[in-house]
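ok so i was messing around last nite and threw this chain in just to see what happens. nothing serious, just curious
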Amino acid sequence: MHTTSYVNMLNNEDDDVFLKNSQSISHIQKPSIFHLRFPFSLKQDQISAVHSWVENNFRGTILYSTGTGKTEIAFQCAYVRSSYSYTDVPLSLANHSLVDHNIKHDQFFSKNCFSSNSENVILKYDQSKFSSNNNPRISFFNILFLVPRISLIDQTVKRLTSYDIPPEKIGVYFGERKETKEIMISTYQSVVKNLNLVRRSNMVIFDEVHLIKDTAKSFTKIFDVVIEDPNKAILGLTATLDEKDFKNKTIMAILPPVIKYSIKNAVSDKRLAKPIVIPIRVHLTSQEEQDYNLFSSKIKNISNRFKRYDAASMTDLLKKGGFASGMAKAWFSNIRKRRMLLSCTENKLSAAVDIISKRFPEEKIMVFSETLESIQKLHNTLEIQGIKSKIIDAKVKTAARQKILDKWGTDFNVLLSVHTLEIGYDVPAVRIEIILATTSNMNQVIQRIGRVIRKQEGKDMALIYVIYVSDTKDDNMIELVKKALKDDSSEAKTPSKEESFVQLDGEENTDISRIKQKDKHKEIKQKPEFITTHGTYGRINKAYSLIESNLRGQIIIEEQKQKDKESDSISDKSKKIYKVQSSKGKNKFYEVDVQDKTCTCADYMFRKVKCKHIIFAELVLP
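result:
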């Protein structure tokens, strides 16, 4: 097999060849995936993903940001892989040209060969191999598409049928439904109980492959079967994968990333909406602080006594029995209590209610938390204030879940979830997300961000509020969010409050440790809100407010402005100037030069500081 061969468009004269030989090939049955027809052209990044996977001998993981069409990439990979198996068979294809082993990669990708608008074309073949006397060849290409949840099975089936795959060619395998077809959709849990489904497959697609860690012993059995056949095509799909985590060593050995497409690139290519991360710092009440310190002290004492500081080592201690096991149980108990406390703090829930009720009473909003108890408490608080909300958790069945999603935005605006909606749900119309911190799981952070940055017409940005408790384990959340966006230009533009204060120049150089110490001794019953000052904090808050008040409007306009004729550099004769709308009037704009950090507003002109308009432009521009 030559991996340098690809599907390519034929010249028009080749159509005559196909017509002349149509009678001799009419009895050929094609693989079911050959029915694939997209009602659109794949993007260049998606084509590149297919290219990279084929180059790696039809094995590897495509690490693409949520919302960039990983499922369509998977279908296309299956199509191309099946084409390689049947290059000697003349077939009429729906949205491709045919395999020609002499075609180079640059020729293949220079043509729009993934468009549904192309005419039907055929595989190039040696005509001498086929005649009316040839025996018919029945062509099958068994594909197994694995998903992490039952709720995603129907979603995948609907996607396939929408792309012209005949429903009778698609089978699902879970629970009482066990249909064996050429294209099968199943869950990891179901397949583990019948690994022969993996053996019979010519290609296995692992959706959300990052979930198949080495610690998930039952799931890794699937990998044991996959490697039995070196010719089996395997494809991993995920938006996030920690390549340095030892728990992912099997994934890295069998399905290493072959291509990556970060949030930064997707936003730059306008494939995703720009994520604007707004950190909101709150504090514990006096009683909550006492409880938090008590739990933390017990955790620390047990860890120091046994020299074990993480869940994995404590789990080993738990297995030893006796006194040590009892102490390990106490350690986990206090971890849970502290986690519960942080998820349900009074000021954190008040901050969420404030965003929902005062800033966006008419917008669809998605809220994520770490515990069902905190979500239920928020639901009750909203209900008292007359704000309707719905909860989707693991107990809500697929049919009921879909009914809730269908009524979201009409019967109610606030959707509450713990982990259920993190994976696989497309909600492109949503622009606002609230994350009640306390998670330390990077995958969760990336998946949650991915829920609201899916692109839709008229949606250029999404607001992600991260509500965290200052001077607690929650502080790590801001670092996690920044790390999740580390390949994104927004990382430098969505700093925490402390970092914003020292990074923005032209103002007072305040000692952050002093601010933290001062905040710590405040009466904690304060309103959970941005810190308001007349300095840099105040300008950051005003920039965020400008974004909030004009979420759906065009408040920034790009212009090309000529520089003075005396400019020293010829290449510097023109520069980008952005017109930012004033918060005081829709017909008033200020001119902002992001590169030189200048603005025509009075705040900049008279104080020479980074004004709210400059900060705003830095936040919203890709």
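not much to say yet. The longest helix spans residues 322-343.
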